[in-house]
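Researcher: Sequence recovery benchmark, item below. Answer with residues only.
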């Protein structure tokens, strides 16, 4: 994969779930770029579509409409077999609960050897890279331990090592710090920062302000659409391909009649109450 290209991107992503009480429009045309070698956080209230977006980027689900690409490959047109192969090679996934990521009867090293084998690596190479990763993530002295002998934070760092082994194009983490306290969250985020410095691309859903603050880019969802992004401390509204922008909630209050007069000025675009 070209490391200057984005690790993943999606455009006009729509996900509609059928349900007995009617359709649920979880994603309503989402455009997101996940830059390579960076941590991108996806935030937003409960039900705003974070997991729906991440499941599609992780090739675990298909969109109803729109484009999703990982490492330059469109996920939408792939057969189930090719999607599975891409997922195995190019995507690492971390679940929210430490126990969901690990098998109770495998040691740290055995988890990493298995992850490497699934990515097509030889046992010896997987063990070598696994040992390197455990060292980077501060788990070298836990290599022979079973998950039950690790703390929640250590389990999540092992899950991260497992997701990163073999350098997939994208690591997707759904609320990986949700069950960790502030100190162990800090250790996990430091581990993520170490990995992104080394070129790993991570997209992480989170409710945790500490985790969002550690990200290079924050994509904030509201009701299935991108409300705004934060890059280098600046809040940016997102204009989609059709020219739609979500106004900040504070700005919505200015337009109770839901109609605006749009004026192009020398230095921008002005929205006024008509
Ligand atoms: N399989 C499904 N079938 C029907 N509706 C679903 C399904 N999965 C999610 N939804 C609905 O889609 C919307 C978005 O859900 P999603 O899980 O993506 O939100 P979220 O931002 O990750 O929420 P949370 O922070 O609570 O995990 C919600 O209204 C949810 O109830």
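Model:
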């Amino acid at each position: 994969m070209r490391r200057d290209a984005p690790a993943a991107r999606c455009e006009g992503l729509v996900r509609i779930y059928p349900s007995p009480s009617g359709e649920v429009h979880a994603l309503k045309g989402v455009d997101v770029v996940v830059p390579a070698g960076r941590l991108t956080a996806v935030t937003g209230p409960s039900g705003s579509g974070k997991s729906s977006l991440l499941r599609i980027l992780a090739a675990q689900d298909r969109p109803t409409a729109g484009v999703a690409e990982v490492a330059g490959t469109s996920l939408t047109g792939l057969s189930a077999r090719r999607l599975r192969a891409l997922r195995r090679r190019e995507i690492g996934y971390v679940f929210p609960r430490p126990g969901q990521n690990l098998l109770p009867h495998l040691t740290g090293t055995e988890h990493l050897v298995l992850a490497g084998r699934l990515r097509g690596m030889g046992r010896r190479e997987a063990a070598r890279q696994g040992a390197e990763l455990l060292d980077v993530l501060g788990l070298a002295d836990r290599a022979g331990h079973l998950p039950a002998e690790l703390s929640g934070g250590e389990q999540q760092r092992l899950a991260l090592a497992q997701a990163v082994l073999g350098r997939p194009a994208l690591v997707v983490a759904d609320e990986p710090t949700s069950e960790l306290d502030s100190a162990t969250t800090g250790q996990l985020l430091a581990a993520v920062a170490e990995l992104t410095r080394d070129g790993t691309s991570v997209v992480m859903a989170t409710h945790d302000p500490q985790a969002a603050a550690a990200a290079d880019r924050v994509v904030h969802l509201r009701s299935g659409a991108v409300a705004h992004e934060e890059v280098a401390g600046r809040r940016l509204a997102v204009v989609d391909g059709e020219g739609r922008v979500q106004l900040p909630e504070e700005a919505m209050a200015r337009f109770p009649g839901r109609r605006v007069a749009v004026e192009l000025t020398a230095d921008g675009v002005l929205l006024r109450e008509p």
